[in-house]
Write a structure and sequence with these properties.
single chain; 374 residues; alpha/beta; Rossmann fold; 2 domains; 15 helices
Length: 374
């Protein structure tokens, strides 16, 4: 198949999954064309059968804002026509699915270009609910030839929020279990916790919805019973607030801000627990990466997280903002070596058995064939 894939190229679950999907499809012999305004950060080296097409936007004094949606549609038309694409797989409803629909209509006299839209989360639960976008999101979803969502939660949310009658297939996010795997404690961990303290870790884009300050409050309670450190990976609008909270709680020596990092596997293998106290999480790819490395996860009971984490088996789930209970769960695991090892094994096994790329990529391939034959 000749497949066009459009995603946001920056840090974030949708861009990661879209790029990794493209790489895996290319390795299986499909011809993949990535279309975006910048090279996806996960496409850091040459991959056979992948071609990148950059969307260029022009600035004119007449237009107050860059016309990215139109420039993207124009590039989609160009690539679909000259590379003879079979389908466009767009990640995120707006503007990608809208641009794809425009490209499909312009090309309809030349070819039947199929569009598959994958919903990832905030395009449905946040951005798409803006009154100015809601009709456009609903239209773009219903005009797609195939629609997938990364969790049952997101599928149900889409149907409810948009009175959507379009069938939606749930295809969960996936992971490379040969990359994300337990490798034993690393030198990095010894530098972070030289006295053998337990290490908690959190990674996100530090937006308010991630509730990163809760991880610091959890640590404050955990160290009353267990010596521990907290590693925070990522950056974003809430980082300054988190740094202020560390000073306020006198935790500057116990909390390490690492910013954006690419060597995530080494960091995860240095840690003992993963914290994800989000207010909203359509899937929780960061938690899956941690589980694949054998880390039990303590999360809030929102969105797709209960579909990923088995409570009292691969980790623990608590209500949003219940810092006391999350800390209690952390102390329970960190203070019981036998229980911790069982949870660690369960977390790894669940990642391997349910979310390995070898199980999910064929589902996408089958879905593509179904849409092409419809």
């Amino acid at each position: 198949m000749k497949i066009g894939i459009t995603c946001y190229p920056t840090y974030g679950g949708s861009g990661v999954i879209a790029t990794e999907l493209g790489k895996e499809l290319a390795l299986k012999g499909h011809e993949v064309h990535l279309i975006s305004y910048a090279l996806p950060f996960r496409l850091s080296k040459f991959v056979k059968n992948i071609v990148f097409h950059e969307v260029e936007t022009s600035s004119y004094p007449l237009f107050e804002f860059p016309l990215y949606s139109l420039a993207l549609a124009s590039k989609m038309i160009e690539v679909a026509e000259y590379e003879n694409l079979d389908l466009l797989h767009v990640h995120y409803a707006i503007p990608h699915a809208t641009s794809a629909y425009l490209a499909k209509q312009i090309l309809k006299d030349k070819k039947d270009l199929k569009i598959i839209t994958t919903l990832h989360g905030t395009d449905i639960t946040l951005v798409g609910l803006e009154p100015s976008f809601l009709p456009l999101v609903k239209f773009s979803i219903e005009q797609s030839d195939g629609v997938t969502a990364v969790s049952r939660f997101l599928k149900e949310k889409t149907i409810t929020n948009y009175s959507c009658e379009k069938p939606i297939e749930v295809i969960p996010n996936f992971i490379d279990i040969n990359l994300y795997k337990p490798n034993g404690k690393t030198a990095f961990g010894e530098r972070i916790a030289p006295d053998g303290e337990k290490i908690l870790v959190h990674t996100s884009n530090f937006r308010p919805v991630k509730r990163v300050p809760d991880t610091i409050k959890i640590l404050k309670k955990v160290i009353e019973d267990v010596p521990a450190k907290l590693i925070l990976i990522g950056d974003g609008p809430d980082r300054s607030e988190c740094e202020r909270l560390c000073r306020q709680l006198d935790l500057c020596d116990q909390v390490k801000f690492l910013g954006k990092q690419e060597g995530l596997v080494e960091i995860l293998n240095s840690a003992d627990l993963f914290l994800i106290p989000s207010q909203s999480e359509s899937f929780g790819l960061a938690a899956l990466e941690a589980m694949a490395c054998g880390l039990p996860v303590i999360s809030s009971s929102v969105g797709g997280l209960p579909e990923l984490i088995n409570h009292n088996e691969t980790g623990f789930i608590a209500e949003i903002g219940d810092v006391d209970r999350m800390a209690k769960y952390a102390v329970d695991l960190l203070g019981n070596d036998r229980k911790y090892k069982l949870f660690s094994k369960n977390a790894r096994d669940r990642a391997v058995n349910k979310f390995d790329k070898s199980k999910i990529i064929p589902i996408y391939e089958e879905f593509y064939k179904r849409v092409l034959n419809s």
